[in-house]
UniProtKB/TrEMBL annotation:
Stated name of the protein: Rap-GAP domain-containing protein
Gene Ontology MF annotations: GTPase activator activity
Biased composition (Low complexity): 908-926
PROSITE patterns listed in its UniProt record: RAPGAP
Originating species: Umbelopsis vinacea
Region: Disordered, residue numbers: 719-773, 908-930
Residue stretches spanning the membrane: none
Domain (Rap-GAP): residue spans on this chain: 1055-1297
Coiled coil ranges: none
Length: 1311
């Protein structure tokens, strides 16, 4: 409309269809003509909202002139006035940003007249021209149409801001033009953003609110692109910026710009591993990348950081935003060095003092400011605490924190730990605080105990809406793991008088805890009251004082923190609902008990009882229950403390586990629960086998045997259950809870053929209730697993109870099996038998058995019987007594006994303590049959005389004895038996007459049966046949379960292979010493630094040193050719070798046992390639995680290492504290290994007891690290699907041997 009117006056040619195009550059005769035209255009930016169409065309004209040089007026280009030309455009563009409202219309006037005056006359006109225009009156403005007009105005403003941005990006602006552009944009921003934020009561959009994001984005981009260092300009910006800080978007923009400059600054300061390569401003989805010079980045970063005032002076919402912005900047500094590059020195992040110099004033002011009701303010204050905790939790590499900062931080913590809003943030950011070398940090333990008591064991309601409940409780548990061992190191430190302020409010009130929790609390108080009874503070308290008088003394003693820590751990175990947190708690309880048991022996029994009760509730998830069993099994090593103060703990636990396993077996739902049954068996047997307590406890023995028998006969019970489809509920209940007699173990039906589940138990993974083609029942894998575990535990119970470790043997616990080399004797026997020249030498080494036979018993045990009757000393008596050596090979190992048949000395009956058994266990390293027999021989008869027995035999008569048939009556109708009856009657009569004659002459003399010749039947009866007959193996019911084995060379070879199979889990673990995470491969293996004495002590606390030249147990992959001494550990269940590169040496010259592998790095690589766990003692935690990657690479492509346990000795006020870090990098040589590492990392709590971030004491370090390494090794094999229990391997091997070597002869013919 406006341009059309100008064209009608012949002031300017106007092509209506192309009205938005700029005029042709050649029509302007001079710069003055251009300025006249620009004044006309500039008036368009002042038009009302209704004429914004004209304004839009003006914007387009100027945009063309700015960005298309060939469209600019020729006069401007010819005179070189581009910069002035740009400045005029920028100034006139600013007129658009004046807020305006639609013109009101009354509706009575039909027309409206206004006058427009031209600024420059057209060609041929000498005077100014004033032309009235009459236009029709527009329709009335409604609310909707006004909002539309305003929104259109805002869109045009955004369009101009885009033009400003493009001008800064594309035009070559002079310094003066840049100044004009910045001032224009700054003025626009200040005029619009200084207004208050709309409260929603005004109609339509508000320009300041709508343009805030765009204005700030354009302003900061242009400001940084200009690279201005004009101090006056920056000061103006700061003064203006303060007027905008009431807007949240302003704080957000500042935070983003400051963070982007921080990242770029970090790249300049710390190299390519830190920061970013450009300044990348990202706000609300818009990304602006600026490539700025280094010196200007430093300058701009400093000026931008301090644009805002102290955040505490801002409104609550903006205060929180500003503090969070500071937090992101601090995190950027802390990220330095987290992702190191290979073969490059990792930079050290900024010191905490540096960060506190920059932000300390703001953060401390936020922490100490008076609390306000506003939720936003509380959020900002809590965030300030979190930032400070993160700063002080980082180790100082150069200089320690200033004392001023430390004191202010501790004072702030004392306040924040008692604040409902700040406590969660403090706990979630303090998990590493106590692992630092911060001076005096351990004095804050009481304050943290007060804070944690508000979260554990039961969280107060006010914390539930702050963060996730499980995450907050986990943070409290993690902090507890770093402080629970500290009271033992600071018992004499005096606590400030008001340290327990708020403690009673936290969680001790009755409304917050239940009755059971109160009982636990009282139990802990009594426990530590007993521990503290010798303390000087208690000497004045008499034994009859009441508990309420003792407890206050405890709470004022050095043991008070220990009591509170133990209480919150145990009570949290009862109240925790998160599976992850409960597993974490169980690991912590395990470590705490090991830490404190030397000072409080009764602690073990108490904790065992609580865990036992928790398991018996049957309400725990399977993963939690498995960890609980692991904890109970770890406590077996503390039995010496248990039996001292809690003698019945082991018995009650074993009986409870029996009930637990029986319950799971009887429910029939083993598909998901069978790992719990197997673990319960394992835990039960470990407590059964520790010590000798169960030897005198017949009731407990019967319960264990009954429970294991129930597992062994699980197949038969299933068949019985399926066959009895009818019956009352009570009968079913009795059947499920009853146990078959033990003798039924030898009366089981025949197993399935080798193609069935009998041999492929691990592969029987499908539930089958049908039968296979041979008619044999197929069993589910869970039933097979339970049966195998029960059989293994029964074998342990029979073979190892009281026999392991054989401390009288020089070998000790390195071997569970006998050292009797029966295979050498078998070879010698076969050789002598084939040559018909059995050796009769009298020396021990040359003794050869008279007869050797092998049997398979019940498909599970290979029994060897060696007749050693000729080697038994009889003191001149004739004939020689039958004697055998029994060697049993089963899933648990190889064991030997000697048995000698002798007449019983009846004179010994006067002494009831005289044993009748003649068997003994052989553990001598050198086989000597004579010694074996001597060791087990009974007292011999002296001259055939004895004292008449005084033992009375009770006699009873049956009620119906008259109805019993006589022997003659039984043989009626059986004439073929008549002769046998007559012969037996004659022999009986002769025996009776002989006894009467002897009694008449000498009643105290025992007659001796003298055979008529040396070839009598009694002399020809094999000793092994007598032995088997006496044990019941030759009974008709059991003969099917005794299978003879043919003794062949292949059988002997396979027996040798069986003896080589592991009887226990055999594990090898790598150990290293490193100064820091930057230690090179050469320093790790070839040229280590001087090993610290503490490291050597730790190494030998993992296991005792053994000489490989004399060692009889597991050796890992080393031998005496490359290693002389190695740390070794063994118990009933496991053997562990700790590979250490510092004990290796190159083979001697000429020794080809290791082939071409002679250099130390290659030797070490080959030795450790199967080690799943690495233990690294690291003096400095700098870049510690990268060391795990370096070790993985160093050990070669075949390395199986997955878990890396770091031990860092803490320095400070006390010695003997160690920080544990556990790394599971998601790396591998194959996709499957990477997946396995990720699985293990996601489920790291399946092994323990140590967890990442824990702090432990020196006296518990060795045992805890060893147990964790063993558990981690097993977990690695589980996630890689390579874990099979040793007894399963041995069982399958035995079954395959029996299948190949079974004799076709009947048992009667064989023996």
């Amino acid at each position: 409309m406006f341009l059309d009117w100008i064209a009608q006056l012949h002031l300017l040619q106007h092509d209506a269809p192309a009205g938005k195009a700029a005029p042709h550059p050649s029509i302007f005769a001079s710069p003055a003509h251009v300025k006249w035209f620009m004044e006309v255009i500039g008036q368009g930016f002042n038009l009302p909202l209704e004429d914004m169409t004209i304004t839009s065309e003006d914007i387009n004209i100027y945009a063309q002139w700015l960005f298309e040089a060939n469209q600019r007026p020729a006069a401007v280009s010819r005179e070189g006035l581009e910069q002035e030309f740009f400045q005029i455009i920028f100034h006139q563009y600013s007129l658009l940003f004046r807020p305006r409202v639609p013109r009101p219309h009354s509706g009575a006037s039909k027309t409206a007249t206004y006058t427009t005056t031209t600024v420059v006359p057209a060609p041929g006109a000498a005077n100014l021209i004033t032309i009235p225009m009459v236009a029709p009156s527009p329709p009335p403005i409604t609310r909707e149409s006004a909002a539309q007009l305003t929104q259109r105005h805002i869109e045009l403003c955004k369009k101009v801001l885009t033009v400003f941005t493009m001008a800064g990006r594309t035009l070559d602006l002079s310094e003066e033009t840049w100044s004009v552009l910045l001032k224009v944009v700054l003025g626009i921003t200040d005029s619009l953003l200084s207004e208050r934020v709309s409260d929603g009561t005004r109609n339509g959009p508000i320009m300041g609110d709508e343009l805030c994001d765009h204005l700030l984005r354009v302003l900061f981009e242009l400001w940084l692109r200009s690279k201005t260092r004009d101090v006056e300009m920056w000061d103006i910006l700061k003064r203006c910026f303060v007027r905008w800080t009431h807007r949240p978007k302003v704080i957000q923009q500042w935070s983003s710009v400051a963070l982007s400059l921080t990242h770029r600054t970090l790249r300049f300061l710390y190299g390519p591993t830190a920061g970013t390569s450009v300044v990348n401003i990202a706000v609300n989805g818009f990304n602006v990348k600026l490539d700025l010079p280094q010196d200007f980045v430093y300058y701009a970063w400093h000026r931008i950081l301090f644009l805002i005032p102290n955040p505490w002076q801002l409104s609550p919402g903006n205060f929180a935003l500003a503090v969070m912005g500071v937090g992101r900047i601090v995190e950027a500094f802390h990220s330095v060095g987290q992702v190191p590059l290979p073969d490059s020195e990792t930079p050290s992040p900024a010191d905490g003092n540096t960060l506190l110099h920059i932000f300390g004033g703001w953060l401390f002011d936020a922490c100490f400011s008076a609390p306000q009701v506003s939720a936003e303010y509380q959020q900002g204050r809590a965030e300030a605490y979190g930032i400070l905790c993160r700063i002080f939790s980082k180790p100082q590499r150069r200089v320690p924190f200033l004392r001023l900062y430390i004191e202010r931080f501790y004072a702030a913590l004392a306040i924040g730990l008692r604040s409902d809003t700040c406590l969660p943030t403090i706990l979630m950011n303090s998990t590493e605080l106590f692992a630092t070398d911060l001076e005096g940090v351990r004095l804050m333990v009481p304050d943290f105990v007060v804070g944690i008591k508000s979260i554990l064991p039961k969280m107060q309601p006010e914390y539930r809406n702050v963060v996730s409940v499980d995450e907050l409780r986990l943070a409290a548990i993690k902090v507890t793991s770093t402080i629970m061992c500290l009271p033992n190191h600071f018992e004499n430190v005096s606590l400030k008088p008001d340290w327990d302020r708020g403690l009673n409010v936290a969680s001790d009130n009755v409304s917050m805890i239940g009755e059971q929790e109160q009982l636990v609390s009282q139990l802990m108080k009594v426990l530590y009251a007993q521990q503290s009874s010798q303390h000087p503070a208690f000497t004045s308290v008499s034994s009859h004082d009441c508990l309420h008088r003792i407890v206050p003394l405890i709470l004022q003693s050095a043991f008070q923190l220990k009591y509170y820590i133990l209480e919150l751990l145990l009570m949290s175990l009862r109240t925790e609902t998160s599976s992850y947190n409960m597993r974490y708690l169980l690991h912590l309880i395990n470590v705490y008990v090991v830490e404190d048991v030397p000072f409080c022996p009764g602690l073990v029994g108490t904790v065992v009882k609580l865990i036992q009760d928790k398991i018996l509730t049957m309400q725990l998830s399977s993963d939690v229950t498995l960890v609980a069993f692991d904890v109970l099994m770890d406590f077996v090593g503390l039995y010496e403390y248990v039996k001292r103060d809690s003698k019945n703990v082991a018995r009650e636990l074993v009986l409870a586990l029996c009930r637990y396993a029986d319950t799971l077996n009887s429910t029939g739902n083993l598909a998901q629960k069978y790992p719990l049954v197997v673990q319960a068996y394992d835990c039960m047997m470990r407590w059964v086998m520790v010590g000798q307590w169960i030897v005198d406890d017949r009731d407990c023995q019967h319960a264990v045997i009954a429970t294991l028998s129930r597992g062994i006969t699980i197949f038969e019970r299933e068949i019985e259950t399926n066959s009895q489809s009818e019956g009352s509920h009570e009968k079913k209940k009795r059947r499920d809870t009853g146990f078959p007699p033990t003798k039924q173990l030898f009366q089981l039906p025949n197993r399935a053929s080798k193609g069935g589940s009998g041999n492929q138990s691990n592969d029987a993974d499908k539930a089958t209730s049908a039968t296979n083609k041979n008619g044999m029942a197929m069993h589910r894998k869970e039933e097979i697993a339970v049966k195998m575990a029960a059989e293994y535990c029964m074998s342990q119970f029979v073979n190892q109870l009281g026999n392991f470790p054989p401390w009288k043997d020089q070998v000790g616990p390195t071997r569970t099996s006998t050292l009797l080399d029966d295979l050498s004797l078998i070879k010698a026997w076969k050789k002598s038998k084939s040559s018909n020249a059995i050796s009769q030498q009298n020396n021990d080494d040359g003794a050869v058995a008279k007869r050797i036979q092998l049997f398979l018993l019940d498909g599970r045990v290979i029994a060897g019987l060696m007749d050693i009757s000729d080697l038994v000393e009889t003191n001149g008596e004739s004939p020689k007594s039958p004697a055998v050596v029994l060697i049993c090979r089963d899933t648990t190992g190889r064991y030997s006994w000697t048995s000698c048949l002798r007449y019983e000395d009846l004179t010994s009956k006067a002494s009831p303590a005289t044993p009748r058994s003649t068997s003994s266990t052989s553990s001598s390293p050198k086989y000597n049959p004579t010694l074996l027999v001597r060791a087990g021989s009974s007292p011999t008869l002296h001259n055939g005389h004895l004292v008449k027995s005084t033992a009375s035999i009770p006699v009873a008569e049956a009620v119906n004895w008259m109805a019993l048939p006589s022997l003659e009556q039984l043989l009626i109708g059986k004439p073929e038996k008549k002769s046998d009856l007559e012969r037996m009657t004659e022999i009986t009569s002769l025996q009776q007459h002989a006894e009467q004659d002897i009694d008449q002459h000498d009643p105290l003399q025992i007659p001796k049966a003298a055979p008529e010749s040396s070839h009598s039947p009694i002399d020809q009866t094999p000793s092994e046949r007598l032995f088997m007959s006496q044990l019941g193996f030759l009974h008709t019911k059991n003969r099917n379960n005794v299978i003879p084995l043919r003794i062949t060379d292949s059988l002997i070879s396979e027996l040798e292979m069986l003896d080589m199979l592991n009887e226990r889990d055999c594990i090898s673990i790598s150990t290293y010493f490193a100064q820091s995470g930057n230690t090179t491969e050469k320093e790790l293996v070839e040229q280590p630094p001087e090993l610290s004495q503490s490291y050597l002590q730790f190494l030998y606390s993992l296991g005792w040193p053994v000489k490989l030249s004399e060692h009889r147990g597991y050796r890992g992959k080393v031998d005496s050719a490359i290693c002389d001494v190695i740390p070794y550990y063994a118990d009933r269940m496991v053997e562990v070798v700790f590979h250490n590169p510092y004990f290796l040496h190159e083979p001697k010259e000429g020794d080809l046992s290791w082939g071409a592998v002679s250099r130390l790095p290659k030797l070490h690589q080959q030795v450790t390639q199967d080690d799943h766990v690495c233990i690294i003692w690291i003096e400095d935690m700098t870049n510690w995680e990268s060391l795990a990657h370096r070790i993985k690479t160093m050990n070669g492509v075949n390395s199986k290492s997955m878990v890396y346990i770091f031990i860092n000795p803490l320095v400070g006020a006390v010695d003997g504290l160690y920080w544990i870090r556990i790394s599971i990098p998601s790396v591998g040589n194959t996709p499957s290994s990477i997946v396995a590492s990720q699985r293990l990392k996601e489920n790291a709590l399946i092994f323990g007891p140590l967890v990442d971030g824990m702090i432990v004491s020196r006296h518990a370090l060795g045992a805890m690290v060893r147990n964790t390494a063993i558990s981690a090794h097993q977990a690695c094999r589980v996630v890689t699907d390579s874990f099979t229990r040793p007894y399963v391997i041995r069982k399958h091997f035995i079954e395959e041997m029996a299948h190949r070597h079974s004799s076709k002869l009947s048992l009667s013919e064989y023996v």
